[in-house]
Amino acid sequence: MRKGKLRKAGTVGLGTLALLGMLAGCGSGSGGQASAGGQEVVLNEVAHSIFYAPMYVAIEEGYFEDEGIELTLVTGFGADKTMTAVLTGEADIGFMGSESTVYTYAGGTEDYVVNFAQLTQRAGNFLVAREPIDDFSWDMLVGKDVLGGRAGGMPEMVFEYILEMNGIDPGEVNIDQSIDFGSTAAAFSGGQGEFTVEFEPHATSLEQQGEGYVVASLGEDSGFVPYTAFSARKSYLEKNKDTVQAFTNALQRGMDYVQSHDPSEIAEVIAPQFAETDLETLTKIVERYYEQDTWKEDLIFEKDAFDLLQNILEDAKVLESRVPYEDLVTTEFAEKAAGK
């Protein structure tokens, strides 16, 4: 394994989605300036999660360095913060749920953010119960207390989408949306809720502690959903085509790696990114994502996937009118990276 150069930075917290339209014109942007080490790119990820394994493979195997990219990775801890960083120019590229790009476009942002590479094709969270349930069905949640996600975020919207697919009105479930992302597992351990919706490593951690049991995969039960994608301002994509292409080429090599290697090999490669997680646990988590076909073979964000995203947004009543796929998605870079 060859480790590539990577600079990690702290959290960028510059505001909320309510301020995005105003902030969009405020940043000068890093502009992908060249340096002695290569083309500088600041990438702001919504969270640092094993769910995004192909990106970390690309980092750890040195694929970005091979493409002449000097990458600085920042964790935004929330799509609102990641989007704000992109719009203000604090980050060149954002990695988050594409619903954020829809919100900012619909809000009238002039230099809006365009999706150019889709990484995951399934939801990455799991339903955790207090006791094992061998024959779980979603109607078991009716009348129960469930720790969910924030309103308007993909985790919560996909959860409600699954409920509706199973003939359940989300209002029939007592969904607590008041707990911050990343804190629901601790709240569940502390006795709140009868079920909780968790990303890894929290789902596995609750199982290891004997405090919860995974009873359903939202990724499997929601079908193929364009959960996360890489995006950048329209102006950045226009001015930095070579840089964006090199970035996408490196990502595609990470996608190729996870398609051609088993979970134990993937876990070993990305282990430096998750020093707090032992290799056995890391392998188990990668295997969970691997077996549910989490990662696409390529990075092409298809129109059908974007239409499904907007269906989910409409069902959640956070989108009044649809936005054009042609404005919010470009497949140019992903197609070239995949040799199509």
CATH class of the largest domain: Alpha Beta
CATH domain topology of the largest domain: D-Maltodextrin-Binding Protein, domain 2
Given helix and strand content, the structural type is: alpha/beta
What global shape is seen?
Answer: globular
Number of domains: 2
Low-confidence regions: 10-36
> What is the H-and-E element order?
EHEEHHEHEHEEEHEHEHEHEHHHHHHH
- State the share of residues found in helices, binned by percent: 25-40%
Secondary structure blueprint with pairings:
Blueprint: E1 6-9, H1 20-23, E2 34-35, E3 38-45, H2 53-60, H3 63-66, E4 69-75, H4 79-87, E5 93-96, H5 99-106, E6 113-120, E7 125-129, E8 145-147, H6 154-165, E9 174-176, H7 184-189, E10 195-199, H8 202-208, E11 213-217, H9 218-222, E12 228-233, H10 234-239, H11 241-260, H12 263-270, H13 279-291, H14 303-315, H15 325-328, H16 332-337
Parallel strand pairs: 1-4, 3-4, 3-5, 8-9, 8-10
Antiparallel strand pairs: 2-3, 5-12, 6-12, 7-10, 7-11
Helix pairs in contact: 2-11, 2-12, 12-13
